[in-house]
């Protein structure tokens, strides 16, 4: 059986000689975040294209960041797990 859902896809393009980065997305959550940025900062973030399922945005290349993965210790992971268990129990009450 073929899945009717198509994979969400994001692609960021930052050319060496250009100052702007281009982001193509089909992810609705990413679109909502970027639509908010376009509305709040129209001189910085721009919607450059869209169709029924995707949007393309442009923004300064300097806003793209590269980070190493965060190292989480076993103790931190367990503390976060316990915190979420407590939060979910409180939500259910």
Specify the number of helices: 2
Strand content: 15-25%
Count of beta strands: 4
Main sheet properties: 4 strands, antiparallel
Topology overview:
Layout: E1 10-14, E2 20-25, H1 28-40, E3 46-50, E4 55-60, H2 74-92
Antiparallel strand pairs: 1-2, 2-4, 3-4
Descriptive terms for the model:
alpha+beta, 4-stranded antiparallel sheet, extended, 93 residues
Describe the protein:
This protein is an alpha+beta fold and 93 residues long. It has one domain. Helix content is 34%, strand content 24%. It has two helices and four strands, in the order ββαββα. It has helices spanning 28-40, 74-92, and strands at 10-14, 20-25, 46-50, 55-60. The protein has a four-stranded antiparallel beta sheet with strand order 1-2-4-3, covered by helices on one side. Strand 1 and strand 2 (20-25) form a beta hairpin. The chain is extended and about 50 Å long. The chain starts with 9 loop residues before the first strand and ends with a helix. The mean pLDDT is 90.
Please give a quick description of this structure:
By secondary structure, the chain is an alpha+beta fold.
């Amino acid at each position: 059986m073929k899945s009717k859902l198509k994979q969400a896809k994001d692609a960021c393009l930052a050319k060496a000689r250009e100052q702007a980065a281009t982001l193509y997305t089909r992810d609705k959550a990413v679109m909502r975040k970027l639509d908010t940025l376009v509305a709040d900062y129209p001189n910085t973030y721009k919607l450059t294209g869209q169709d029924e399922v995707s949007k393309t945005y442009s923004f300064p290349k300097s806003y793209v960041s590269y980070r190493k993965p965060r190292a989480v210790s076993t103790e931190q992971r367990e503390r976060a797990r316990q915190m979420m268990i407590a939060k979910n129990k409180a939500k259910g009450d």
